[in-house]
């Protein structure tokens, strides 16, 4: 990772993203707590998460829009717009204003897709192909580290200063990101402007995903795993309550341990990409979730710590493997559409999985559901592992070039003099 951090352009980009990622980590949970305080409803508080995820349906349109403009100026503009979207939060006073929080959450979700697609394209232009895994690993490591402190900091700020503090800190974070990234030198490459009919341009990202074998394999395998991985969002509460016989607040302790695993996974992910390739790293990330889920089927605190640590390692491996594969296997002018389409196709199963898990945990034993998650993620990991040859390791040796063919000596004409001069010596006199 030190190699990519030595690049001045990436250091500037990293500094801007650190500010925006800090704002993101503080906002989401605190908004849900704010709605809970205003309404007293757990359902309405949980609806904030749905409001953020719902705009994923517009991802193909967002990706098409992102790909039509230069990456760096677009990212800067989108960051400023995101900051302005938080302004209505300053007017929220009571339960009658909850609709404003929902509106901001939905617009924030739309902005998150936009910034993610623009960032994928910007990284693809700014960072050499051989350093993309390192760049994604750095960003995932910081993101996982912020999960340790961001939600707690957001909750503390809300308790101390109120909702307006969330809006103010969020605005400062995104405006700082815009200012810092605007100083990044413009990449030498610009996305080609493809002028097709807009329906064809709109679906170009999805066609590329389904037509490129490595991307298709990665999306299918990770999508299958995502259909059950979201169960754990609800199952972990049953594990703490019914299995460990502890208060629900103890979930926060397990989340902190998971964050430590996320740091480990983020630091190790570039080396795994170099050794296993992108699909191999994605397979390892999905497969790591299997022993974690199987261990949580048995309520033991020591085993539980190991399990959530493995689950934490899993997330950055999957993200780095998937994002690096997209950036390396997609033409620059399509990166925005492909990244947005991937985000939608992955987030859809995750949202469905979270909702299904919340329903099933009230009907079935949580241990049985954890066993199901473990078996399903192991199967998805094996499916991905069997396709690892589709993405060669980034740090592997270049393929040995085939031997140069030996050209046959030119044939002399049939009627040529057999004693014609040759290059190796003087002409020999004819024998009598």
UniProtKB/TrEMBL annotation:
Subcellular location, principal: membrane
Membrane topology: Multi-pass membrane protein
Gene Ontology CC terms: plasma membrane
MF-aspect GO terms: transmembrane transporter activity
Localization terms from the record: Cell membrane
Domain of life: Bacteria
InterPro entries: MFS, MFS_dom, MFS_trans_sf
Major facilitator superfamily (MFS) profile domain ranges (all copies): 1-194
Keywords from the UniProt entry: Cell membrane, Membrane, Transmembrane, Transmembrane helix
Transmembrane regions: 12-35, 47-66, 73-92, 98-123, 144-161, 167-189, 219-239, 251-272, 279-298, 304-326, 338-360, 366-385
Region (Disordered): 392-432
Coiled coil: none
Gene3D superfamilies cross-referenced by the UniProt entry: MFS general substrate transporter like domains
Regions of compositional bias (Pro residues) in chain numbering: 396-411
Keyword Cell membrane in record: yes
Protein name as catalogued: Major facilitator superfamily transporter
Organism for this UniProt entry: Micromonospora lupini str. Lupac 08
Lineage of producing organism: Bacteria, Bacillati, Actinomycetota, Actinomycetes, Micromonosporales
């Amino acid at each position: 990772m030190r190699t990519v951090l030595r690049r001045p352009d990436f250091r500037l980009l990293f500094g801007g993203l650190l500010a925006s990622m800090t704002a993101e980590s503080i906002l989401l949970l605190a908004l849900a707590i704010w709605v809970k305080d205003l309404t007293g409803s757990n359902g309405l508080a949980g609806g904030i998460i749905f409001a953020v995820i719902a705009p994923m349906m517009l991802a193909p349109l967002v990706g098409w829009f992102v790909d039509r403009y230069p990456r760096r100026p677009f990212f800067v503009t989108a960051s400023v717009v995101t900051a302005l979207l938080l302004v209505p939060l300053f007017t929220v006073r009571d339960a009658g204003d909850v609709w404003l929080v929902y509106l901001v959450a939905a617009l924030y979700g739309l902005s998150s897709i936009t910034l993610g697609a623009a960032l994928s394209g910007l990284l693809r232009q700014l960072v050499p192909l051989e350093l993309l895994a390192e760049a994604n690993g750095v960003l995932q490591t910081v993101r996982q580290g912020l999960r340790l402190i961001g939600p707690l900091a957001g909750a503390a700020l809300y308790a101390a200063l109120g909702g307006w503090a969330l809006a103010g800190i969020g605005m400062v974070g995104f405006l700082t990101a815009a200012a810092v990234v605007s100083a990044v030198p413009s990449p030498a490459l610009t996305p080609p402007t493809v002028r097709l009919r807009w329906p064809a341009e709109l679906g170009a990202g999805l066609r590329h995903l389904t037509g490129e074998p490595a991307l298709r394999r990665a999306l299918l395998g990770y999508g299958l795993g995502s259909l059950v991985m979201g169960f754990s969002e609800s199952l972990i509460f049953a594990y703490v309550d019914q299995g460990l016989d502890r208060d629900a607040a103890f979930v926060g302790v397990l989340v902190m341990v998971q964050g430590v695993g996320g740091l480990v996974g983020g630091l190790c992910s570039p080396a795994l990409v170099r050794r296993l390739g992108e699909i191999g790293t994605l397979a390892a990330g999905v497969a790591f979730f299997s022993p974690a889920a199987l261990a949580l089927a048995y309520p033991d605190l020591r085993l539980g710590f190991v399990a959530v640590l493995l689950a934490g390692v899993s997330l950055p491996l999957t993200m780095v493997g998937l994002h690096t594969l997209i950036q390396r296997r997609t033409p620059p002018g399509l990166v925005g559409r492909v990244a947005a389409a991937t985000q939608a196709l992955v987030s859809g199963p995750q949202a469905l999985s979270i909702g299904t898990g919340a329903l099933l945990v009230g009907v079935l034993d949580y241990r049985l559901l954890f066993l199901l998650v473990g078996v399903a993620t192991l199967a998805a990991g094996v499916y991905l592992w069997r396709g690892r040859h589709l993405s060669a390791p980034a740090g592997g040796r270049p393929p040995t070039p085939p031997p140069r063919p030996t050209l046959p000596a030119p044939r002399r004409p049939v009627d040529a003099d057999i004693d014609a001069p040759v290059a190796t010596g003087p002409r020999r006199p004819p024998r009598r």
